Each structure stands twice: as structure tokens, then as C-alpha cells.
């Protein structure tokens, strides 16, 4: 039981650290002169990181506790949820960034940035899954059996 | 088990909620902060935006009490500090001088020279450029109720009429005849009186032909009188170090007797230079130079040449433009130091690195002829960067570079073969004694048909050199731009 709580705490800490170091992490992966400055100035990195964390944890929670079905507990079901997260999150983030950068013309850079953001989305979804799966009545063995 | 599930669902929901609220907060902060940030990022630092920011503060005086004074007016200093605090956290750091929006009404004192040689600038057959220039000064001064007019020659005498009567007067020298002694002009006395009378917030303008014509100069050699003129200028202006002087040279029709130095008067009909000497505290002139309302006043129509004495070197506001059509090679603007380029790489084929900066030269008050002349700059770097300077045009501005070009006046492009690991590009704007003054000066004005008579003024260079030496001995500069580069 204690190990499972440790996983949850690690997951939360990792997500918080992602939030704190969002600018450094995103810019380490993708920097474009001009675009990155405006992402920073408008606080768009904050919105994107928050949306990424929120959707990843939210969809993981939906999978493990709302769907929580024996008919949907195989690894590829989990992978499908990861896929859904990796599609939904960049779309929401793209809309959010477009609103933040209204008036600027960085559509190519915005699109490329969202491609890179899929990596963080997937990582956060994995972290969220391994943080909360242990208490799911039907899916705690997904994606990897205990 | 159900209990644990509920708790975990609650934890997940809380994380989602926290994330959502973080997303909301990262979008802006308070209304005032958001408005300021938006203005800075979009480069919209106009009077309209400033007014809208003020109305946010005034609509919620309790919340924003620190930005209001006791009378409920905007505390410009506190608000300016807050704006620049927000701006300093942006990339690149941005600043906004809002002091110009609260510039208290200045007063203007015109000193209109009425010496023998000035009268003929206002001949009825001429174009009346002199009177037009003075009228323009008054008309382009934002508050006409704060304008005073004096007549000067051997001393300073108040003008008897009103500002309106002065503006409408078609023969100002006729209506002021008998005022003082028009046979000589005592610049030493006039400048000293102007400085002594000048109160904070006052701008004085001496309208003159700048011909040094003191009393009792019979049989005194030209060289002696010019040396005296030079020393007098230095002595006066050294005493008033906090003053700044703008000399505007204009041309006007002249028809009448001309009084050469130490010689018999000669008839002359043609063009002659005259001068508007604007005098004020350095801070006052600096603020006017930054305020569009005073642009026409400081540099009225018809100005042929201009120079500002005692222009204290200041920080030149500039930004490196990350994405510009002329850029060649690669570089990244440092996150920690916006005046530093990292990961610099020349073009793969040519090895050339070319980057562009947007500069605000407006506070210098220099025209494009000066600013785009590369000989006015000293450029130093190991790479041997060469620069070109041009004014920003409306065609240069797009949505992506608007925040970099906002408040900027010129584009400097630096180009060179970048080979070193570290380099430092320094661009110094030299404040040399201007060549036009020497070109507009003569030591002999006895022959009106001599070439250059129409464009030169007796003893001008020595007098103005005296002022220059009083303020700017040695290698004076207007400022310096330094950019560090790393590979």
C-alpha cells in the first residue's frame, strides 16, 4: 500500500515540477526566435503546461475510475486512451496558444510546437496512469500487470 | 476499496481543477497587469492606451490606491515604475516612458533680436521667413497662454503687445522701433539674462542672426574679436552646465543694408541665414525631444541645419530583432541577456553572419542625414562587423515584429564573417562638432557678392565652438550600443 502511495506522490511531484520548469523544458525541446519570446511573454507556456497536465490526469482518471471496465482493461485499450489524450491535448493547446498569440503570425511554429508537446502529453499520461492505477477495481493491471 | 477510489478520483479531479486554474491565471493576472502587458507585447504604447490604463486605475481606486496621489490623480512615477517592472520580466525586456503623457505645461519665452542687421529679414518685398519661423514656434507650442515675448539688442525689453498682436503684426520691426539700441547685440548679457530668468519648465528661444557685434570694436582685429567671442561663449555656458541648447539654422530673404564687421554698411538683396536658439534645462529638452507634441517646435519647417549642445550621453534603447528578412546565418538571443547572441553561426556557404537591431534614436533629436551617415559611428569588433543604418518604414512592421519595432526609429544591420568563439560588437555614436557650422561660418563679411556670403555668418564657428567646448571637451558621444556574441 505504501509503495502505491509513493507512486502517487512521485506522479504529483513530477507534474508539479513539469509546471514549475515548463519554460525551460519546452524551450529545451523547441525554440524559435520570436515565437518563443511571445509564448513566454503571453504566458502561453503556462496555459499549455496546465492543459497538458489537466487532460492527462483527467483522461487517466476517466479511464481508471469512470470507465473502469473489465471489457476495456487490455494494454491496447490503455494505449487507445493515450492516443486520445495525445490527439485532444495538442488540439486544445493549439486553440489556447492561438488565442494567446492573437495578432501574431506564428501558425507554423505553433503547429510544430504542438507536435513536440505530444511528447510531454504522453509522458504526463504515463505518469498519471502509474500514479492512480493501483486503486482501480478493474484496470489496475493495465497497461503492465502488477 | 470504494472509499479509496473516491479519494483517488477526488485527487485526480483536484489536479485537473488546479491545472485549469493555473491555465486561467497564466493567461493574465489582474486587469491592470493584463492591460499593461498587452500594451507592451503588442507595441501599443500610445496616449489612447495610456488613458485606458489610467481609467482601469481610476475605476477601482481602492484596489489601485498605490498608483493614485492624494488628489486622486495618477501617480505617474509609481505607475511608470510598475509598468517597467512588468516590462523587465518580458522577453526582450521592454520599457515605456509614460512621463511624456503627464508633461506639465511648459512656458515659452521668445527673445526676438532687434539689431540693425535683423530688420532687413522682414522687408515687405521678402518672403517673411523669419517672422513665419517665430510664428510657427508660438503656434506649435502646445500652450499659447504660457508664451512671453521680449525684444533684445543691447538689453532685454518686454514686447508691448499681446501674443496675438505679435502673430498678426506684418511689420514687427516697425512696430517695435525705438526699443533699445539696435546698433549692437550683447550676447554675453543676453544669454546670462536668459539663463538667470529661466525657471524650471521654461523654454527660451533667441531669434537671431548670430552675428557677434559687441560695442566699441573700432580698430580691433578680427582675430582678436573672434577669440573674445569664443572665450565669452565658453565662460557663459560653463557657468550654466545644466542647460541644453539647440541651434536651428534657417534661411530667409534679406533686403537692405548689411553691416559688416568693422566696415561700412553695404546694400544686399538675397538670402541670409538666421537662427533659432532654443535654451532649456537638459531634462526639459530631453522630455520635449521624447514628446511628439513638441516635434514641430524643436525642429520647425524650414530648418536647414540643427545641432544640440550639451546632449548628455544616454542609454540607447535597442532590441535585437529575432526574425528579420536581412538576417543571414544563425543565432539565438540569450534568455538571460537580451543583448547577447548565442549559438552564432555564419552562413554555411559564405560564413557571413548578419543580424538586425531596432534602435530608438528619437531622444538624440538627429535627422536622418546624420543618423544614416556611417561616418558618425565608430564600430568595433573582432569580426570586423560593418553596419548600415536606415529609418524604419511602415512597410517593415508586421504582427510578429511589432513589439520589437514599437517605439523604435531605425534599423541597424550588422554584417561580418563570424569566425571567433566570442566577440563584442560596440557601436558608438560620435558627438562631433558638426561640419555644417564650420561651413556656415566666415571671418570676412565685407563683400556681399563673394561666394558663400548668402550662406555664411560672421564668427559663427568660434562662438558655437566656445559653447561646444564648454559642454563637451574631448571625445563626446551620444551613446553606445554593445552586443555580445558567442558561437
Explain this structure.
The complex is a heterodimer of chains A (146) and B (487). Chain A contains six helices and no strands. Chain A has helices at residues 2-20, 22-29, 35-41, 44-67, 75-100, 107-132. By secondary structure, chain B is of the alpha+beta class. Chain B has three domains: 28-99, no CATH class; 107-313 and 442-471, Rossmann fold, CATH 3.40.50; 318-430, no CATH class. In chain B, 31% of the residues lie in helices and 26% in strands. Chain B has 15 helices and 18 strands. Chain B has a seven-stranded mixed sheet with strand order 3-2-1-4-6-5-7, with helices on both faces. Chain B starts with a helix and ends with a strand. The chains are: A mainly alpha (146), B alpha+beta (487). The interface between A and B is large, with 41 and 39 residues.
Essential attributes:
heterodimer, A: 146 residues, mainly alpha, 6 helices, 75% helix, 0% strand, B: 487 residues, alpha+beta, Rossmann fold, 3 domains, 15 helices, globular
CATH architecture of the largest domain in chain B: 3-Layer(aba) Sandwich
Shape of chain A: elongated
Radius of gyration of chain B: 28 Å
The N- and C-terminal alpha carbons of chain B lie at a distance of: 59 Å
What low-confidence regions of chain A span 5 or more consecutive residues with pLDDT below 50? none
Q: In the residues of chain A, how many domains can be counted?
A: 1
Mean of all residue-level pLDDT scores of chain B: 85
Q: Portion of residues in helices of chain A?
A: over 70%
Amino acid at each position: 500500500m505504501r509503495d502505491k502511495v509513493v507512486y502517487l506522490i512521485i506522479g504529483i511531484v513530477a507534474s508539479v515540477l513539469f509546471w514549475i520548469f515548463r519554460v525551460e523544458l519546452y524551450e529545451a525541446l523547441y525554440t524559435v526566435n520570436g515565437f518563443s519570446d511571445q509564448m513566454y511573454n503571453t504566458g502561453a507556456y503556462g496555459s499549455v503546461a496546465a492543459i497538458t497536465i489537466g487532460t492527462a490526469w483527467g483522461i487517466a482518471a476517466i479511464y481508471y475510475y469512470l470507465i473502469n471496465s473489465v471489457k476495456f482493461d487490455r494494454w491496447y485499450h490503455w494505449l487507445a486512451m493515450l492516443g486520445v489524450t495525445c490527439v485532444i491535448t495538442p488540439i486544445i493547446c493549439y486553440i489556447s496558444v492561438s488565442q494567446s498569440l492573437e495578432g501574431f503570425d506564428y501558425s507554423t511554429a505553433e503547429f510544430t510546437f504542438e507536435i513536440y508537446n505530444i511528447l510531454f502529453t504522453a509522458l504526463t499520461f504515463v505518469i498519471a496512469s502509474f500514479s492512480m492505477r493501483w486503486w482501480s477495481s478493474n484496470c489496475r493491471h493495465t497497461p503492465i500487470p502488477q | 476499496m470504494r472509499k479509496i477510489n473516491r479519494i483517488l478520483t477526488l485527487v485526480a479531479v483536484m489536479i485537473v481543477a488546479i491545472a485549469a486554474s493555473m491555465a486561467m491565471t497564466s493567461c493574465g493576472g489582474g486587469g491592470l497587469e493584463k492591460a499593461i502587458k498587452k500594451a507592451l507585447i503588442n507595441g501599443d504604447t500610445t496616449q489612447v492606451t495610456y488613458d485606458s490604463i489610467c481609467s482601469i486605475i481610476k475605476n477601482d481606486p481602492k484596489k489601485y490606491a498605490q498608483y493614485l496621489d492624494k488628489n486622486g490623480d495618477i501617480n505617474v512615477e509609481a505607475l511608470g515604475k510598475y509598468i517597467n517592472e512588468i516590462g523587465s520580466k518580458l522577453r526582450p525586456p521592454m520599457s515605456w516612458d509614460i512621463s511624456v503623457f503627464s508633461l506639465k505645461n511648459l512656458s515659452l519665452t521668445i527673445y526676438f533680436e532687434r539689431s540693425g542687421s535683423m530688420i532687413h529679414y522682414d522687408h515687405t518685398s521678402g518672403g517673411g521667413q523669419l517672422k513665419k519661423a517665430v510664428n510657427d514656434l508660438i503656434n506649435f507650442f502646445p500652450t499659447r497662454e504660457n508664451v512671453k515675448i521680449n525684444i533684445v539688442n543691447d538689453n532685454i525689453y518686454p514686447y508691448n503687445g499681446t501674443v496675438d498682436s505679435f502673430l498678426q503684426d506684418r511689420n514687427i520691426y516697425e512696430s517695435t522701433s525705438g526699443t533699445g539700441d539696435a546698433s549692437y547685440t550683447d550676447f554675453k548679457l543676453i544669454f546670462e539674462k536668459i539663463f538667470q530668468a529661466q525657471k524650471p519648465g521654461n523654454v527660451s528661444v533667441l531669434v537671431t542672426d548670430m552675428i557677434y557685434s559687441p560695442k566699441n570694436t573700432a580698430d580691433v582685429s578680427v582675430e582678436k574679436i573672434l577669440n573674445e567671442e569664443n572665450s565669452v561663449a565658453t565662460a557663459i555656458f560653463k557657468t550654466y552646465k545644466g542647460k541644453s541648447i539647440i541651434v536651428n539654422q534657417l534661411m530667409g530673404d534679406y533686403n537692405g543694408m548689411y553691416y559688416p564687421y568693422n566696415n561700412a554698411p553695404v546694400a544686399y538683396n538675397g538670402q541670409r541665414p538666421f537662427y533659432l536658439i532654443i535654451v532649456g534645462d537638459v531634462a526639459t529638452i530631453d522630455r520635449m525631444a521624447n514628446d511628439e507634441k513638441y516635434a514641430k517646435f524643436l525642429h520647425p519647417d524650414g530648418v536647414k541645419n540643427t545641432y544640440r549642445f550639451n546632449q548628455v550621453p544616454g542609454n540607447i534603447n535597442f532590441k535585437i530583432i529575432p526574425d528579420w528578412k536581412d538576417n543571414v546565418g544563425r543565432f539565438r538571443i540569450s534568455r538571460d541577456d537580451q543583448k547577447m547572441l548565442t549559438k552564432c553561426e555564419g552562413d554555411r556557404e559564405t560564413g557571413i553572419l548578419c543580424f538586425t537591431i531596432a534602435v530608438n534614436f528619437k531622444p538624440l533629436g538627429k535627422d536622418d542625414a546624420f543618423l544614416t551617415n556611417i561616418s558618425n559611428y565608430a564600430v568595433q569588433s573582432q569580426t570586423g562587423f560593418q553596419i548600415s543604418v536606415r529609418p524604419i518604414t511602415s512597410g517593415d512592421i508586421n504582427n510578429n515584429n511589432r513589439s520589437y519595432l514599437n517605439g523604435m526609429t531605425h534599423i541597424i544591420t550588422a554584417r561580418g564573417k563570424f569566425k571567433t568563439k566570442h566577440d563584442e560588437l560596440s557601436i558608438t555614436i560620435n558627438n562631433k562638432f558638426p561640419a555644417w557650422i564650420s561651413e556656415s561660418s566666415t571671418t570676412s563679411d565685407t563683400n556681399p557678392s563673394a561666394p558663400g556670403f548668402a550662406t555664411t555668418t560672421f564668427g559663427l564657428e568660434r562662438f558655437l565652438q566656445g559653447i561646444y567646448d564648454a559642454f563637451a571637451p574631448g571625445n563626446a558621444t551620444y551613446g553606445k550600443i554593445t552586443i555580445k556574441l558567442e558561437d
